[in-house]
Amino acid sequence: MANFNVRYGVSLRKRFLAVGADKRKRYKCDLCGKVAVKRVMNGIWHCRHCDSTFAGGAYTFHTTAGETVSRLLNR
Ligand SMILES: [Zn+2]
């Protein structure tokens, strides 16, 4: 169990570093197709083109982190 916790901590840190660079990027809007979606706060994304607000990942718009959390909760 201790080994698992250590490995999990390392992978979490790597993931955090990997997604950290993405949080300032703009993402393609699902509705209007323009690359105008920016993060306004954790998990909240806003398209400047069509004025839509989305609930997404905390650091990336289309995130795999949310899926990871769901999988962890389902254990
Ligand atoms: Zn849009």
Give your account of this protein's structure:
The protein is of the alpha+beta class and 75 residues long. The chain has one domain: Single Sheet (N-terminal domain of TfIIb), CATH 2.20.25.30. Helix content is 37%, strand content 21%. It has a 4-stranded antiparallel β-sheet, with no helix packed on it. A hairpin with a 6-residue loop joins strand 1 and strand 2. The chain is elongated, with a radius of gyration of 15 Å. The protein starts with a helix and ends with a helix. The mean pLDDT is 72. The site of zinc ion (ZN) has 9 residues, from loops.
Sum this structure up briefly.
By secondary structure, the chain is an alpha+beta fold. The protein has helices spanning 2-20, 65-73, and strands at 27-28, 35-41, 44-47, 53-55.
CATH topology: N-terminal domain of TfIIb
For the biggest sheet, the summary is: 4 strands, antiparallel
Bound molecules: zinc ion
- First-last Cα distance: 15 Å
Strand content: 15-25%
Which structural category do the helix and sheet elements fall into? alpha+beta
CATH class: Mainly Beta
- CATH architectural arrangement: Single Sheet
Q: Could you give the count of β-strands?
A: 4
- Percent in helix: 25-40%
What coarse outline follows from CA principal-axis ratios? elongated
Low-confidence regions: none
Q: Whole-number radius of gyration?
A: 15 Å
Q: Please, how many domains?
A: 1
Number of helices: 2
Q: Please write the string of helix (H) and strand (E) elements.
A: HEEEEH
> What number is the mean pLDDT?
72
**Strands side by side in the biggest sheet:** 1-2-3-4
